[in-house]
Write a structure and sequence with these properties.
The complex is a heterodimer.
Chain A (H helix, E strand, L loop, with lengths): L1 H26 L3 E8 L6 H20 L7 E8 L4 H13 L4 E4 L3 H13 L3 E4 L6 H4 L6 E3 L4 H15 L4 E6 L3 H19 L4 E7 L8 H10 L3 E4 L3 H14 L4 E4 L6 H7 L1 H4 L3 E4 L9 H14 L6 H20 L4 H10 L4 E2 L2 E2 L14 E5 L5 E3 L3
Parallel strand pairs in A: 1-2, 1-3, 3-4, 4-5, 6-7, 6-8, 8-9, 9-10
Antiparallel strand pairs in A: 10-13, 11-12, 13-14
Chain B lengths: L1 H31 L6 H17 L4 H35 L7 H23 L4 E2 L9 E5 L2 E4 H23 L1 H11 L1 H6 L4 H27 L1 E2 L3 H16 L4 H21 L5 H15 L14
Antiparallel strand pairs in B: 1-4, 2-3
The chains are: A alpha/beta, B mainly alpha.
């Protein structure tokens, strides 16, 4: 009995080796494989889903125009479950499949471990929703790029916007003690410092909340008591929705300013139109306000396929990550990571959905503008005008 | 002064949630000596059943019964659903391993927890869901000064306390309650005295999860955002509350829940939001060092 099972196991093992070998041989020459590491489960599952859909549409557009190097693009997915631990696993999975270029990922804490792994294994990775400054400025990762802007761009814009346009005197800044939120908050204070020193502005509140909870009434009561002119929340939409909802219920009437991860359909759904109207959000150009030829083409294709607009700008950046990789591979004439990374840094003529795709020496996207948007009484976003 | 009163109101509301969930925990622990890891997921499942009822036929329930009628239907539906659900989980996951000892039972509870939360994810997707705005009663009552309390919060507190009082009465003052307490004390002797153990299990595993479900629907109505993982956080806090109050007895769970809510609100409101959990668990450790049986865990012999 024992011998039979040993033989059986051996046969199965041998067969499986054979099968994998065949699979690899067959797959290699036909397509260009690009990895897509996104959060399909966990807190950022919606962002991951939107990104996946956007990349799908971008892929179809590229393939319809003949693909890259004459080959069709194929996307290999991996789910990083919105947390750093699974992110490393997802990266390992894609690396072990022999990919040379990947799109990864949303959230700075989540992207960091994956970016390290990709870098160590010489895989070009392009982040689409990770904006912490340290990702590119702490250590040089020669194979890491991002299509999204950097947090300090946003913080700098906030300081100018709050003081010069909103004429705010008393400012409250609230974060969640995680990479992204803390980064934006710290930089915002840094850029406000000159105004604070000259006595033009007072920082009346600076503290963190515990993310992932449902009841923020205690913090909200505090904000109501302090009653700042501007309440800047620097972390993600689930908490932003609850905070604003509970603040309005408690009777706070001041101005709420959200950051670039807040204005999403989920935020609108959780908080409701009555709560969000009048709140202002800082963002890079939003999908519905893009007007490049590439944007129009992409949005039309997206609407035809999914019957809605992309859920957030980050998802569109994911599509642009694919566009950047495709352009660089085409230009370099190879998928060799060294040549692709070099091309990414030097190319100037790659057109993306969100504008020209150009990168700095350290892998940051060049020239990302910022805007302030306000929810009108119908709960739709408009450009903020004083 | 006003801020203090406002924070006390906030703490009382959060505390009522914790107390409701904690009571279900405590009942099961008292009788079965089982830390029911699945209890937080009963809470989540209840919340999703309430959600399903309210979004059914794009708000049919609210249109038919009015806004408060819809709330009542959602609450009762979720409670019945989880009353039955709790019994099924007991039959499938706990009953077969009673004789195997306590460790397998705890592992089985953990398994049930993972099964339920992943089941919810599979059915309703891993994304946030929001209770429809049109089905949530709005408006608030002006308590004093500038302190508002929303009607739904008020109802949450009143219903929670009424139910907790009712169950306290049943367990402590009635003949059936004596049977439950006797079983908690010593199952074998109680069975020898003619108490039907199955009836007690039926009671504990239908009422406990139903209370969790009630809290779940109220969470949805108060905060509107629900997600399949939310039970874990509430389960942990409720467990902390039961330990604080003295695990196994019902007044202990109630007091522990309220105390936890108040501590959280006061600390978050007056000191710092980011150190809240550190502070709360520090208090827990101190309580356990000074009174290892919890705040009112004196009558160790009498746990329900």
């Amino acid at each position: 009995m024992k011998r039979i099972s040993t033989i059986l196991v051996t046969i199965i093992l041998a067969l499986s080796f054979l099968l994998t070998a065949c699979g690899q041989q067959a797959a290699e020459p036909e397509t260009i494989q690009i990895g897509l590491q996104v959060p399909l489960t966990g807190d950022f599952a919606s962002e991951g889903q939107w990104a996946k859909q956007c990349v799908e549409v971008a892929k179809e557009l590229i393939n319809k125009k003949g693909g890259v190097l004459g080959k069709q693009i194929e996307i290999i997915e991996a789910d990083d479950a919105s947390n750093p631990k699974d992110s490393a696993l997802a990266a390992q999975k894609l690396i072990s499949q022999g990919l040379k270029a990947v799109i990864a990922s949303y959230g700075s804490s989540v992207t960091a471990p994956a970016a390290d792994l990709y870098d160590a294994n010489k895989v070009v990775s392009v982040g689409y929703g990770c904006t912490a400054v340290r990702l590119t400025m702490d250590t040089q990762r020669p194979y890491f790029f991002r299509t999204a802007g950097r947090d300090d761009t946003q913080s700098e814009y906030f300081a100018k916007f709050a003081v010069e346009i909103l004429q705010a005197k008393r400012i409250a800044i609230m974060h969640d003690n995680q990479d992204y939120g803390l980064g934006v908050a710290e930089d915002a204070v840094k850029f406000l410092q000159s105004y604070i020193d000259s006595g033009q502005v007072e920082l009346v509140y600076y503290d963190a909340i515990t993310p992932g909870e449902s009841d923020y009434s205690a913090v909200v009561s505090q904000i109501k008591e302090i009653n700042p002119d501007v309440w800047f929340f620097t972390a993600y939409y689930p908490e932003a929705a609850l905070l604003l909802k509970q603040a309005r219920e408690a009777g706070y009437t001041g101005l709420f300013v959200g950051n670039n991860s807040v204005p999403t359909p989920e935020f609108e759904k959780i908080a409701g139109v009555d709560v969000i109207k009048g709140s202002v959000h800082l963002n890079e150009p939003m999908p519905q306000f893009l007007s490049y030829a590439e944007s129009v083409e992409f949005m039309d294709a997206y609407k035809a396929k999914y019957n809605e607009m992309p859920g957030s700008i980050w998802a569109v950046y994911a599509a642009d990550a694919l566009n950047a990789l495709a352009a660089a591979i085409e230009k370099a004439g190879t998928t060799d990571p060294d040549k692709v990374a070099e091309t990414m840094r030097t190319m100037t003529d790659a057109a993306g959905i969100t504008g020209p795709l150009m990168f700095t020496e350290r892998g940051d996207r060049k020239d990302i503008p910022y805007y302030a948007y306000i929810y009108n009484d119908q709960g739709e976003l408009e450009l903020y005008q004083k | 002064m006003q801020l203090l009163l406002e924070q006390l109101t906030n703490g009382l509301t959060i505390g009522s949630f914790y107390a409701l969930v904690a009571m279900g925990y405590s009942m099961v622990y008292g009788v079965m000596k089982l830390i029911n890891f699945a209890h937080g997921d009963f809470f989540t499942l209840g919340s999703y059943i309430g959600y399903a009822i309210l979004v059914f036929g794009s708000g049919w329930v609210t249109r038919t019964f009015g806004i408060w009628g819809g709330v009542v239907v959602a609450l009762i539906g979720a409670m019945i659903g989880l009353g039955v659900g709790g019994l099924i989980v007991e039959r499938v996951a706990y009953s077969p391993v009673y004789k195997a000892g306590r460790l397998p039972l705890v592992v089985s509870a953990l398994g049930a927890s993972i099964f339920i939360s992943n089941g919810i994810m599979a059915i309703w997707s891993p994304r946030f869901q929001a209770y429809p705005q049109t089905s949530i009663p709005t408006g608030s009552l002006l308590l004093f000064g500038d302190v508002h309390i929303t009607y739904i919060k008020l109802v949450t507190i009143i219903v929670s306390w009424a139910l907790m009082g009712l169950i306290y009465y049943v367990v402590e003052k009635t003949l059936f309650g004596s049977a439950v307490r006797a079983t908690a004390l010593d199952r074998e002797t109680a069975t020898l005295m003619g108490i039907n153990f199955q009836t007690i299990i039926l009671f504990v595993f239908s009422v406990g999860p139903a209370l969790g479900a009630l809290a779940g629907v109220f969470a949805g109505l108060n905060y509107s955002r629900i997600i399949f993982t939310m039970g874990w956080g509430y389960g942990l806090k409720a467990f902390t509350a039961t330990i604080m109050g003295g695990i196994g007895n019902i007044p202990g769970a109630m007091i522990g829940g309220i105390l936890l809510g108040l501590l959280e609100a006061l600390f978050e409101g007056f000191v710092s939001g980011q150190w809240k959990n550190v502070f709360v668990f520090l208090i827990l450790i101190i309580i356990l060092i000074v009174r290892p049986t919890g705040l009112i865990g004196e009558k160790v012999a009498e746990k329900v």
